[in-house]
Amino acid sequence: MNYLWIITLLAALQFVVFGFLVGVARNKGDVKAPAVSGDDNFERRFRVHYNTLEQLVVFYPGLWSFGLFVSMNIAAILGVIYLLGRVLYSVQYASNPDSRGPGFGLSVLPIYVLLLGGIVGVVLELIG
Predict the structure, then answer these.
(1) Fewer CB in 10 Å around end: N or C, the chain?
(2) What is the arithmetic mean of pLDDT over 96-106?
């Protein structure tokens, strides 16, 4: 279970770092709050941060349900792949949004596996 906590906290830290990068881009691009547009670099960083939030909503329950009902080690490995995918997505999206596909796929596919595996694991636990 310790691995799942490490992955959980790293994902939260990654989200915080992405938020910090939004603030840096807001400052550099002179985008005054509450505006969320006006500078391409800022908008890209903002989208990475927001998309990561959207992914975290399903990543966390998938990670923990898979870990508790299927395999903690496999959940941790999938969590690491997710984190690496998010980094790749961030780098790709910030440089050229059209190139974000590999990073997006590398972070979304583990989520699908975690969610589906978690659902199957919970159902099997319920039936017995």
Answers:
(1) C
(2) 96
